[in-house]
Amino acid sequence: MESDGEHSPPHACGAGHRASHSLPTSAGGSVCVSCAAALLSSASAPSHHVSHVLASLSLALADPAFLAPLRAAHPRLLAVPLVEALAGAAARRDAALATQASDLAADLASAVGPPAASELVARLAHVLSSGSLVKHFHMLHCLGFLLNSIKGASAYIGDAVSLFLNLVNNLRLPSDEIRGEILFMLYKLSLLNATPWDNICDNDNVDLSAVGKSLLQLSLEVLLKTQNDAVRLNCIALLLALAKKEAFDILLLGDLSLIKSVEEEESTQTDDVPPNASIIVLFADAVKGSLLSTNLEVQTGTLDLIFHFLSSDANICVVLQTLVDENVADYVFEVLRLSGNNDPLVISSIQVLSLLATSEEMFKEKLAIGFSTLLPVLHYVTEIPFHPVQSQVLRLVWICIANCSGILSLSQEEQIACTLTLILRRNDSGELGMCSETFALVCSILIEIMRSPSAHDIQKLPSLIEEASKHAISSTLPHAYDSAFLVPHSLRLLKEALIFCLEGNTDKISVKKDLEDSVIEICGTYLLHWLETAVVDGNDDETLGEILQIFHIILSSTCHNKQLKFAEMLASSSWFSLSFGFMGLFPTDHVKSVVYLITSSIVDKILGCKYGETIRDAYVYLPSDPTELVYLLGQCSSEDFNLASCQCAILVILYACSFYNERLVADSQLLSSVEQYILLNGGKFPYEIAGSVMLTLLVHLYAFVRGISFGCTIQHSPEAERTLFHVMACKEWDLLFIRVHPIALKWLFQKVELLEPLSFQMLNFCRTFCEDRTVVLLNSSQLVDIKMVAELVFSGETSLSSLLVSLLNQIIKDGTEDEVFSVVNVIAEILVISPCSSSHFTSSGVIDAVGSIYCSPYSSRIKTVCSLLIFNILYSASAMTVYWEDEWLALTMKPLNFSMLLCASRSYRIVLD
C-alpha cells in the first residue's frame, strides 16, 4: 500500500504493474491488486506476508473508494489468488492463515458479486473434485459458505458429479470437523439439485446404486460414531434431502441383498464381515445416539429422517422388522417421555411410532412397554383442536388396547375413557372440532375399553360411556348428510354400550341401569327420528342396519318391562308402515331379514304367546310390499305349507297394526282379502300349522275389520261371514289366547249367531278369572281383564249380559259347582266395577238364575257370592227393577241370615262399603 497524498493520480507500482491496477483508498493511498494477487499466489511467500496482504485486502474491501473500481475493472482478479492462498495455507497446515483467506474469499464474493463468486466457486470446486481433502477443511468451509449464501451457486461448478463423488469418498476421513464440512457441502449440493440423482441422463457412467450405497453407509457411520451435534445436524440434513429425492429407494429396491433380515444376516456373517453390515441395521444403530442428544433440533431431525426412511418404497416389512428388533421404538418412546410436550418433538415421535405400528405383530410388545408414555401425550394432543398427530396418537392407543388390553390398569382405562369423553363433549358443544378419523378412533377405543375383561370393575366407566354415547350420537345422527362417515361409528359405540350394560353378574348389571336407560332413551329420540326421515331422505342401509341391530338387542336382551315399553314405543311410532318403507327403499335380503326380525320381536311383546315366531318362520317368503302382502293372504293355501306359513305371519302383522291405527292398505282391500282367504281356505289349515292359532288370528282380524267398517259403505260378503261362523262353531280357537282389540271384541258380542261359541269362550274366561282374578297375557302389554268385559256390558251395545245369564242357566243345569261359582263371581265383579250394569242383568233374567241356585244344594261360598250379587243389584238398580216387591222379598230373605254372619267374619268387597 502506498500513500502519495490525497489528490495524486494513480501511477504504476514499484513492481511495474499498470497504473490501473493500483486502486485508491479513502485514506489517500492505493493498493496494487496485481501485487496482492502475485503474493497470494506465491507458494514461497512467507506466511506473515500473506497474512498482511489478506488483512490489507480485508480492510480495503470495506472501503468504497477501493471497492468501486475493483468491481468495475477487476472483479475476477483476486478470486484465483485467494483459492491458491487457501491451498497454500492448507499445505502449510496454517489454520489461522487459512481462516483469513477463507473469510476474505467470502467477503470478496459478497462485496464484488457474481463475477468474483462464480470464479471462487468454480476454482474451489475444481480443487475439491479430486484427491484427499484431509488438509482442506477451510476450503470446504469456504465453498460451503458460498453455496449457502450465493443464489444459484451450483451453476458455477464445472463438474458437479466429480465433486460430489470425491466428497462422498472423503467421508472416510477420521476428522469430525472435515466430515461435518463435507456433509454440509453434500447437503447444499442436494438442495441445489447438483447430485448424480438430479441429472441421471447425463450420468450414464455413474452407478447410482453403488454411489447411494457408499454415501448412505458412510453417512450412517459418521452419524453412528460422532458425538458432535453440529456434525449430526449436517448428516441428518443430508440424509433427509437425499431421502426426499428417493435416492435410497433406488438403492434398496435395486440391491435386495441389503434388505435381509437380521437373523439371516447374522447366520451368514464371517470374521471378514464387520458387524452391522446391513445398511438397515447400521441405520438403526446410527440414529440411536442422535435420538438421545440433548439438542432438540438433532432429535427432531433424526425422527424426521426415520420417518422418511420408513416412508420409502423399499421393502418396508423388512425395514420395520429390523428397526423394531433393534429397539429403535424404545428410543423414540424415551424421546417422547422426555419431550415435555415439545410440539415438534411430539409430532415427529408420533409419526415414527405410527409407521412402526403398521407392523402390529412385531410392534405391539414395544407399544405395550411404552404405552404409559402415550397417556400424557394423549391428554396433550386432545386439548388442541385438529392437532396434526391427534388421530395418530389415538390409533396407537387403540392398537395397544385392542392387542394388549391386559397391560392396562383400571386407572389407566378410566383415564383414557375420561379423556375421550371430554373430547366428544367439547366436539358436541362446538368448543373443539375434530377430524373424521379422530372421531372414529375415539369411538373404537371406547368400544375396546368396554370389551376388556376388567371393564366391569371400572367404577366410573358406565357414567362416562353414558355421556360419551350421548355426545357421539347427538353430534352425528342429526347431521347425517354432513357426517355420513361418522354415523356408523357413533352407532357402534351405542350398540357396544348397550351390550356392556347387559353383561356381567346381576350386581354389575344393576350398577349400569342408568346407562341402559340412557341408551334406550337415545333410541327413542335420535334413532327413531332418523328412521322416520330415512324413508323420505333415502339414507344409507348401513346406518339402518346398525340401528335395527340396537333395537333387536333391546327387544331381546333387556328386562321384560323395558322390552315391552320399547316395543310399544316402536309400534306407536308407525313402525309397521316404516318397516315396509325401509324394505322398499333398500331392497336387499339383509334389510328385509333384519326388518322382519324386529317386527317379529315387537309382535312377541304386543300380542304375546310368541306370535312373532310365525314371522320368523316365514320371513324368507314374505314380500316387501304391503299390497303384495294382502294379495298373498287371499290365496288358497290348504295344500301349500309355505304359503300357509306366510298367511299366518300376514294375519299376525295385519292384526298387530290394528292396535296402533295403522293401515298398510285400504280397509275395503283388507276386508276383501280376509274374506277371500275365508272363502278359499275355510278352516282347512296344513297340519304343520296349529289350526287354533290360525283360526284365532283370523277371527280377531275379521272381527276388527268388520268392526271398523260398521256404519260405513264398505260391502261385506255374507257367505264369508257364514263360513267363518261355521268354522268358529266347529273348530278349536281361543278368545283369550291373544291380545284382544276392543273393536273386534265388541263386534263379536254383537253377533247373536255366535252365542254358542262365545259362551264357551266366556266360560273359559270365568274359570281363569276365578283362578287369578286377572287374565294376563304372557309377554303382552295388554291386560284382558274384567274391566274390558264390564265396559262391554255397560255399553249395552252387545249381548254380553244375556250371554252370561244364559251361560249361568246352562251350567246350573249341566255344569259343575266350580263353573257355577266362576260365572256368578264374574257377574258380581262386573257389578262392583259398573253398578249401573245391573239393569242389563236383571232384564236378562239374572234373578231367576240366582233364585234357582238357592233351590239347589250348592256350598256356602256360591250362596255368599249370590248374596253379594243380590245386594249390589238392589243398591244400584232402578225403581222399575224392584217393582215386583214380593219376588225380591222372597229372594233376599233366604241368603240374608248366613250372608250377614259371613260378612262379620270375613271382609268382602260390596258396593255398600
What can be said about this structure in brief?
Residues 1-20 are annotated as: Disordered. This protein has 45 helices and five strands. It is mainly α and 913 residues long.
Structural features, described:
By secondary structure, the chain is mainly α. Among the domains are: about 1-160; about 595-750, no CATH class; about 755-775 and about 785-913, Alpha Horseshoe (Serine Threonine Protein Phosphatase 5, Tetratricopeptide repeat). Helices cover about 70% and strands about 0% of the residues. It contains 45 helices and five strands. The strands form two sheets. The protein has a three-stranded antiparallel β-sheet. Helix 10 (about 210-225) packs across helix 12 (about 245-255). The chain is rod-shaped. This is Protein PRD1.
Shape: rod-shaped
What percent of the residues sit in helical stretches (DSSP H or I)?
Answer: 55-70%
Q: Give the strand tally.
A: 5
Point out poorly predicted stretches. 1-7, 253-277, 776-781, 908-913
Report the total helices: 45
> What portion of the residues fall into strands of 2 or more residues?
under 5%
Q: Give the class from helix and strand content and strand pairing.
A: mainly alpha
Radius of gyration: 49 Å
**Which strand order does the major sheet show?**
1-3-2
Distance between the termini: 139 Å
Overall pLDDT confidence: 84
Oligomer: single chain
Largest sheet, strands/sense/barrel: 3 strands, antiparallel
InterPro entries: ARM-type_fold (IPR016024), PRD1 (IPR044968)
Region (Disordered): 1-20
Organism: Aegilops tauschii subsp. strangulata (Goatgrass)
Protein name: Protein PRD1
